[in-house]
Amino acid sequence: MELIVDSNGMTNRDTPRKASVSARSGSAAFDRAELRAGPTLGDGLYLVVSGPGAGHGRSTRLRPDLGDPSPEYRRIEIVVEAGTESVTGEQRYERSMPLSGLAGSRGIELVGSNGTKRFDLMSN
């Protein structure tokens, strides 16, 4: 089953989650974050994130925090950086990242300028 979490903290399991505001000033906002199966069988899960573009020739990317070798939740930040985009920048962005070997012991935590979302990846 694909787990989808929207920017209001609702999942496709109808579990509300309140977002906490990120203190990271270099982060981009997101309005949709979901986990999808990889494009081929056995390819694992991918994090797919989208939101409003950064504008002014800047682009967005997903950056995992690899400082802690074994966190409960691996932090993945949506960062804004000077890019090769046009002067007006992206209107919207969509970025994806494979999670194979990247998740923490319990899951991942997506960090954006408008809040955070946790994805629990442990099997019950």
What can you see in these coordinates?
By secondary structure, the protein is mainly beta. Helices cover 0% and strands 43% of the residues. The protein contains no helices and eight strands. The chain starts with a strand and ends with a strand. Residues 1-25 are annotated as: Disordered.
Fraction of residues in β-strands: 35-45%
Q: What is the alpha-carbon Rg in Å?
A: 14 Å
Euclidean distance between termini CA atoms: 14 Å
Element-level helix/strand string: EEEEEEEE
Mean pLDDT: 79
Overall shape: globular
Q: Helices and strands in order, then pairings?
A:
Elements: E1 4-6, E2 32-37, E3 45-52, E4 58-64, E5 73-82, E6 92-98, E7 107-112, E8 115-120
Parallel strand pairs: 5-7
Antiparallel strand pairs: 1-2, 2-3, 3-6, 4-5, 7-8
Write a concise synopsis of the structure shown.
By secondary structure, the protein is mainly beta.
Record keyword descriptors for this entry.
124 residues, mainly beta, 4-stranded antiparallel beta sheet
